[in-house]
Protein 1
Amino acid sequence: MMNKTVIGLEIHAQLITETKAFCSCRADVFDLEPNTAICPVCTGQPGTLPVLNKRVVEFAIMAGLAMNCTINKRSVFDRKNYFYPDLPKGYQITQYFFPIAENGFLYLENGDEKRKIGIRRIHIEEDAGKMIHQGTDSITGSSGSYVDLNRCGVPLIEIVTEPDLRSPAEARIFMELLRDTVRALGVCSGDMEKGALRCDANISMVDDSGRSSNRVEVKNINSFKFVEKALEFEQERISRILSSGGDVAKETRSWSFSSKETFSMRSKEEENDYRYFPEPDLPELIVSEDLIERIAGNLPELPWEKIERFMKQYSLPRYDATVLSSDGEIASYFEEVAQTTRRPKESSNWIMGEVMRLMNEKELTVEEVRVSPEHFKELFGLIDEGKISNKIAKEIFPFIVEGRKSPLEIVKEKGLEQIDDDKVIEDALRKAMTDNPSAVEQFRDGKEGVLGYFVGAVMKATRGKANPSKVNEIARRMLKG
Ligand code: ZN
Ligand code: MN
């Protein structure tokens, strides 16, 4: 039996505006002390009124255009009513009936497959605050809970896809594409670990006979890896229930980071439980054709456009182009290095290899591991001229980063220049031959394998600096006698 998997995503992206959606509190609250970026508006005091942040509208339009949506010239804010301590107003301002953007799509590339994934809608809304539960990570079993309202009113866009994704891996790839897109636009940091990009996933499965399971919603997914893991877990679970003839409960489940499984949170509430109605404190949002056109004309280069350009301009394989363009800073660093060295493929290898490895291992930024393009040029030159081997080049790379010194300086300082001098190699070989005359005999009797022993001895004597191909050549000549 082959079940078909159907996945749709609801993604919340935190907008990197200066101020919140409806007041002038600062919007970047990630590292702040609790309750230090709040005001009467975002804490829902009586008598206050929201005022819409223009940047939020512009960012939402940018995202809508990048995702090929229709931008609605008229959209409307609504109240989504529910009670929770982190929502002092008792409702969230969102756009339910008339969102700012709808009917878009993004192309998803998975291996050789390229498919359109529908974007049903993008709407503007505000974030809620945060609860901190003492001792545990849930309210049950905690001795006390605190509320931090800093995040109240932080602007979000919610992006809702059509149920067009067919596997957990596709869902992860889609999230990565979305991250790259909002980053390229400069509207969101795309950082899932910090909660700047959050994903709820709806999954259902259809069996051979066309019978569809109920839809299960998975919440609390806080990394790209876990998008895939949580959905794989659900796919397994739903398959198992379907094949045993059971009914899949329509519910909301939460992904547990510690146990790597999902667990039931609640049976899924219906949309009409929220008693949506138009927000009386905000006028309808009317955007002009002019504004839309101006924003459309100023969109930055989008990830898929950059990938195509890198492949064409620098003759890179798609894989390289995709990795390099997933981060704007890495992409522009690569371009600088490639243009200075005129060696795009080597530049790509070094940046995807040594540079990104250092960044990951030591949690450094591009700026911190930045080897100047001129130093890269010098490094490639040293390798070309046979002054150092590729291996030595990789070994000294961290020192170039650390000391901001030129590769040549470091090679000299550390005495790492490759030994090309025939005489030095011959001397070392002569010594090895005197030390082990029986091995010389063996070679002359036709045991070619002992060549390796002599090459090794010379490399050891020169502390790995002798040019290996030269050592091979000379050893062969001298051993023949
Ligand atoms: Zn405020
Ligand atoms: Mn939402």
Protein 2
Amino acid sequence: MILCIGDVLSAQALARVRETLQTSAFRDGRDTAGWHARTVKRNTQADGRERAVQTIRDEVDQAIAASSLFQMAARPKRVKPVLFSRYEPGMDYGSHVDDAVMGQGAEAMRTDIAFTLFLSEADSYAGGELITDTTAGEQHYKLPAGSMVVYPASTLHRVAPVSHGERLAAVGWCQSQVRDPAQREVLFDLDTSRRRIFSEQGKTEDFDAISKSVANLLRMWAEV
Ligand code: NI
């Protein structure tokens, strides 16, 4: 399941993030790529050691955590703090798969889900689509600023070359309580259905029955 979530960041938060990134130092993006992805990664990333970058990173992390759609789709157990990436004309990120395990020791986590939160206005740069390689063919994503795409980290994906302007994005990964993407999708469908029933009809018998199923499936599938 690939899900696009709109308005994760407010216009004010977006302005703060973009303003901070304008004066932040950026480093070669290959510093954080696996050995094979390094060969095709051509971008830069904000230096996470800077205090100002840490502040906006916390703000973005909190906004993502506050999204009920993200919670329902990802069922996060651990979420890696976002990285801020920048693509200028001529930069791209060739086809790759993300590392399955990131971090070391107590910080180590399995990457079940990846996400990209777009920070630049879509019409302010040319190219820069996130392209996922699925069995149904390639899917292209270039979302409005403040929106994000959430996709299985198991997919091959790439970022198309930027030919004009600047593409800023926050990227991150999470380990899910529910490892299997098909099981996550069943839970997401049931959860969104019961919320729709609740908002339209209240706490009906159908709502209670689906709620019971969501809870009992989670008991079967969740790793906590
Ligand atoms: Ni990637």
